[in-house]
Amino acid sequence: MRFIADLHIHSRYSIATSRDLGLESLWRWGQLKGIRVIGTGDCTHPLWLEELERELVPDGNGLFRLRETHDLCGAPVVPERCLAPVSFLPSGEISCIYRKNGRTRKVHCLVLLPDLDAVRRLNERLARVGSITSDGRPILKLDAKDLLAMLLEASPEALLIPAHAWTPHFSVFGAFSGFNTLEECFEELAPHVFAIETGLSSDPAMNWRVSALDGITLVSNSDAHSASKLGREATIFDTAPSYQGIYRAISSGEGLAGTIEFFPEQGKYHADGHRCCGVRLAPSETVANGYRCPACGGKVTVGVLHRLESVADRPSGTRPAGAPPFCSVIPLIDLIAATLHVGSGSKKAQKLYFELLGRLGNEFHVLLEAPLEEIAASAAPLAAAIGRMRRGEVEIDPGYDGRFGTVSVTPEP
User: Fold this and answer.
1) Structure confidence at residue 68 (pLDDT)
2) Residue 238 burial (CB < 10 Å; 0-12/13-18/19+)?
3) Residue 6 CA: distances (Å) to CA of 261, 374, 392
4) Could you tell me which CATH class the domain 2-265 is placed in?
5) How far is CA 324 from the centre of its chain?
6) What is the pLDDT of residues 74-119, one digit of tens each?
7) Nearest residue to 334 via CA among 389, 277, 391, 265
8) Among residues 285, 298, 329, 412, which one has the fewest Cβ atoms lying within 10 Å of its Cβ?
9) Residues contacting residue 136 through CB under 8 Å, at least 6 positions apart
10) For residue 87, with 0-12 CB atoms within 10 Å meaning exposed, 13-18 middle and 19 or more buried, which class applies?
């Protein structure tokens, strides 16, 4: 069975997240987006875990669903064309900050677990290291290798995936605090790391340039901090919608059909730069300036493109044999807003968004599959914009140093 999953999100217990990140809201937005399996996020936080145990029941396939008795009457309605089952998979993100090989390392790790008992066992171990109550994404003085060992003790079927693997400050390969290889980070346990998350600022094509990642599964997730951001990146599976199916696809690549990506230039750490001065640099310019801002002399944030190129051993355009495909998309609400010349939060844009979902189906269907003539019946300029997006005819002002890039659709000739 082919389905879409978004396994890296957050709850309202994480710092700087929306209050709408509850199970009802995630259940609703999963259907609006076209997502079959959603990570719970923040499973290490005791209060969120209590909610998960209270509000979810096993689905019989290693995943979970909202209780039958769960009162969804007060939840905003899901259009009939979007109605679909939604399952949840226990997941969380852990920030490991520690010293290794003479440097401070800051590595964010996504963990996936097969059941809530395993989550409890992991949390017992993590609570001995530091606080797991102050943030849904706990910050722990813990070697990522030791986290992996604890995770496998909690369940040999658990998965650790280095999150947004190339971002500068908090990732396994980050320019400021990361490693050059998975083996350097995880040592003898590296064979238990089957996948990395590409992150918003890179895509599979960029990662294909690194031969050391051959055999490593590339996954994508939203890292959503609000429910409406669900699915801004996601992974496509072609397997049973079960924990075992997902585990097998991630660990072996069998059943992983591809990913849905941001255009990587839109990510907020794609290019080099210094946000305070409004300076964006190409890697060659950064090197020429001695990694200093040409405006103020301050340190430049080395972006994902630069960092990846520094370890790449293949030219751009390389594609390993058997690598799953990917597609790059612009969120539907952003395309609508651009064609209407309004903000994405405007009532006009929101109205058209929900009208389209009600008439055509979920967002991924509209973006990737719906016939353009059907979209044009509601909004001709939008249909033209989606057609150009599907062909990759976009113009992007790249993001840098924590500032998102902007994407626009190429005007009609």
Assistant:
1) 72
2) middle
3) 12, 27, 23
4) alpha beta
5) 17
6) 455 799 999 999 999 999 999 999 999 999 999 999 999 999 999 9
7) 389
8) 412
9) 10, 11, 12, 13, 14, 15, 17, 41, 42, 44, 45, 48, 92
10) buried
Rounded Cα–Cα distance for residues 109 and 159 (Å): 10
The structure's pTM equals 0.96
CA distance 178 to 168: 8
Work out whether strand 256-261 and strand 326-328 pair parallel, antiparallel, or are unpaired: parallel
Residue linked to tokens 């609006």: 32
Q: Go through the chain and tell me how many residues it has.
A: 413
CA 181 to CA 160: how far, in whole Å?
Answer: 16
Q: For residues 237 and 113, give the distance between their C-alpha atoms in angstroms, rounded to a whole number.
A: 18
302 neighbors 175 (Cβ within 8 angstroms):
yes
d(CA 168, CA 172): 9
> Sign of the CA dihedral 261, 363, 84, 239?
negative
> Is residue 197 pLDDT above 60, yes or no?
yes
Report residue 219: phi and psi, to 5°.
-120, 160
Mean pLDDT of the chain: 95
CA distance 157 to 105: 26
Please say whether the beta carbons of 398 and 265 come within 8 A: yes
The domain ranges of the chain are: 2-265, 331-395
Going from the C-alpha of 308 to that of each of 178, 181, 210, the distances in angstroms are 12, 12, 8
Strands 139-140 and 91-100: parallel
pLDDT in tens, 273-308: 999 999 999 999 999 999 999 999 999 999 999 999
At 119, list the tokens.
């989550």
Return d(Cα 173, Cα 85) in angstroms, integer: 36
* Whether pLDDT at 311 is above 50: yes
Strand 195-197 to strand 159-162: parallel, antiparallel, or no bridges (unpaired)? Answer: unpaired
Contact at 8 Å (CB) between 216 and 195? Answer: yes
